[in-house]
Amino acid sequence: MNLLSVSNLNVNFHLKGQDLAALIDVSFTLNRGERVAIVGESGAGKSVLGFSIVNLIDKPGYIKSGSIKLDNKEITKMTRPQLQEVRGKRIAMIFQDPMMTLNPVLTIGAQLVEAIRSHTRISFKDAKNIAIEKLHSVQIASPEKRFHQYPHELSGGMRQRVIIATVLLLNPDIIIADEPTTALDVTIQAEIIQLLLDICRNNSMALLLISHDLGVVSRIAERTIVMYAGRVVEEGPTLEIINDPQHPYTQGLLNALPQMALPGQRLNQIVGSMPPLNERPTGCAFHPRCPYATDQCRQQQPGFINSGVSTVACFMVEDMLTDTNSDYDEEID
C-alpha cells in the first residue's frame, strides 16, 4: 500500500468572480522512504500541490475535487484536530525562506521546544535534550550555544539547518521540501541537499522535493514528476527523465541548465512564459511555446501514454510510438 496517494486532485482559486484552476487532475503516489521530485517553472502549481497535501490551501483557494490519502486515510475529509495530528507528526514541510518560518523574537531553542511540547507531553528538560540532539544531527556546530541564539544571529545555511532540525523533531513519515536551497549560495546548496539525502536514507523518511532545478533534482530524487500549468506532463525515474526526456517542456527545462551551454555562450531558454491561471490556452497548455505544436495540440488535451519506463502527455510522442509500432508490425508480417 502506498504511504501517500494523490488521485485526480483539482484545486481552484476563486478570483474576481471566476473559478480558476490551479491544479488539474493531478495524480501520483509516494512510497515509504521514496524520494520524489516535483519539477516545473514558477506558476506550474508545484507549491500549491505541496500545500494541498497538508490541507493548507487558504482562501480564495480550495480543493475542488479529488483525493489525498495518507495510509489510506482521506486528508481532505479530516477535522482540524485530525489535521493537527498529521501536520508535523506525519507530514512536515521545509520552506525556501527560513526567516519566514522562524520567529525572529524567540530563540532557536524556545521554538524547537515549543514545537515538541505542542505535540507531546514531556518536560522542558527532555524537550531541550531532543532539540539539541536534532541540532547536532543536522551538523550544526555547538548546538548548545545555538539553542540560546536568535535566528538573525545565524547564517542562511545555518537557519535552513535549524528548519530541517525542526522538521525532524517528531520523526515524520514524509518531508515536503519546497525549494529548500533557492536562497542559498551554491556551496551551501550542495551541503543542504546532501543533508536531506542522508536524513531520508538513514531514517526511511519519504521526501517530496519541490524544485525548478533539474540539476538539484538529479542528485536526490529517485522519481521525477514534471508539471506545467497545473498539470502533470511527464513522470518517470529521474535518470530516465534526465537522460531521455520525452515531453518538449522537459527537454526545454534540461536545455536551459547552465551546464548545457558552452563557456561564453548565451544560456538556452524556453521561449515565452508560463500562462497565468486566467489565460490558460485550449488544448495542450504548452503549445504556444512548443516548437513541435500542431493543430491537434492547440485543440485537444493529450492523454497519458507509456513511453519506455516513463509516462508522458504529448501527441508528438504518441505519434512517434504509433509509427514505431506500425513499422515493427510490418517487419513481423
UniProtKB/TrEMBL annotation:
It is an enzyme of class 7 (translocase). Residues 6-254 form the ABC transporter domain. InterPro entries: AAA+_ATPase (IPR003593), ABC_Ni/Peptide_Import (IPR050388), ABC_transporter-like_ATP-bd (IPR003439), ABC_transporter-like_CS (IPR017871), Oligopep_ABC_C (IPR013563), P-loop_NTPase (IPR027417). It comes from the Bacteria. One of its GO terms (cellular component) is plasma membrane. GO terms for molecular function: ATP binding; ATP hydrolysis activity. Keywords: ATP-binding, Cell membrane, Membrane, Nucleotide-binding, Transport. Coiled coil: none annotated. Transmembrane segments: none annotated. Its EC number is 7.4.2.9. It is a peripheral membrane protein. It catalyses: a dipeptide(out) + ATP + H2O = a dipeptide(in) + ADP + phosphate + H(+). GO terms for biological process: peptide transport; transmembrane transport. It is found in: Cell inner membrane. It holds the Pfam family ABC_tran. Its main location: membrane. Belongs to the ABC transporter superfamily. This is ABC-type dipeptide transporter. It comes from Marinomonas pollencensis.
